[in-house]
Design the sequence.
DNA sequence: AATGAAATCGACCAGCA
DNA sequence: TGCTGGTCGATTTCATT
């Protein structure tokens, strides 16, 4: 994976499309080269399917951490939520009921970036404390929520009889 | 969203492709109808981009819970992990360091299915106890890990100088 | 390994039954 | 809804660097 591959994958994430033409507009990489690159990325297992899901291990984002945030936040500052989402590596962020107020899940390339993540989060004014948990192994990391359901369950849930 | 839409979305998740031809093979819905349906689903916001990311709220999976599992598991039974993944609704599952052994994230259609999720999890032999946290609001639910990074960070992390 | 050109194939849209 | 035909983009192949 070199600079061009990174640019491609980043463009796919940002644009939400795998269209070679659109990717060419964004990256100025020639269309035929985009094909060539994407093929290689698929064959090497970095890209998993037609929907361009990334293999986090293969792509090098193999450190996953769960961070619980205790905050002085009371639902007033919309800016605060924005600030959390600006921290690099934050893939998911939930405002929760119970003891801790936020839970953040981040996928990072190495320990160094973990340090930076925690630092960035603790630097936020409203954040009182953080509590990090390292993930030892990922059993499933799915963005396709329907995957985990049986068709029958979906049908009975989402259609009127 | 009727039965056909559900079948389509489920097929997209399972097959990992949005190819109308492939979807036709799987679902027997005519190709032109697949176009028609997918267009409608995009316009109504259920599908968010060319990569067929679902809007969980729109699709009706608007209840998110984080479940921490304490277990008697010591890395021996591969079957145990399988069992966790068979529970409907489990989108992500991590084996973690620290107090609790597993963390599961599930996206569900209603409280009833939450009940069933917890029941299913607690029914597993190795599971000693569960601790659930409801998500009040989702700030970000991203499956595209590169989204949260600046291009510059990715380049400096993943390319040798 | 990367690119461009040419040819083919599938995706998509419009209009009609 | 579903079908048909035409247009356009996506993809493959091949020749060139």
Sequence:
């Amino acid at each position: 994976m070199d600079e061009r591959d990174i640019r491609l994958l980043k463009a796919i994430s940002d644009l939400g499309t795998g269209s070679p033409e659109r990717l060419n507009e964004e990256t100025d990489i020639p269309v035929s080269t985009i094909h060539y690159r994407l093929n290689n990325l698929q064959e090497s297992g970095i890209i998993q399917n037609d929907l361009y899901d990334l293999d986090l291990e293969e792509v090098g984002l193999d450190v996953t951490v769960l961070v619980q945030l205790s905050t002085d936040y009371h639902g007033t500052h919309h800016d605060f939520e924005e600030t959390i989402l600006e921290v690099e590596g934050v893939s998911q962020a939930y405002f929760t009921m119970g003891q801790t107020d936020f839970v953040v899940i981040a996928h990072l390339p190495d320990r160094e970036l973990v340090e930076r993540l925690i630092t960035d989060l603790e630097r936020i004014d409203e954040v009182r404390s953080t509590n990090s948990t390292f993930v030892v192994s990922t059993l499933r990391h799915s963005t396709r929520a329907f995957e985990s359901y049986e068709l029958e369950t979906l049908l009975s849930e989402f259609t009127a009889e």
Remarks:
- Residues 30, 32-33, 36 of chain B lie near DNA strand D (CB under 10 Å from a C1').
- Chain B touches chain A through 76 residues (CB under 8 Å).
- The longest strand of chain B covers residues 127-141.
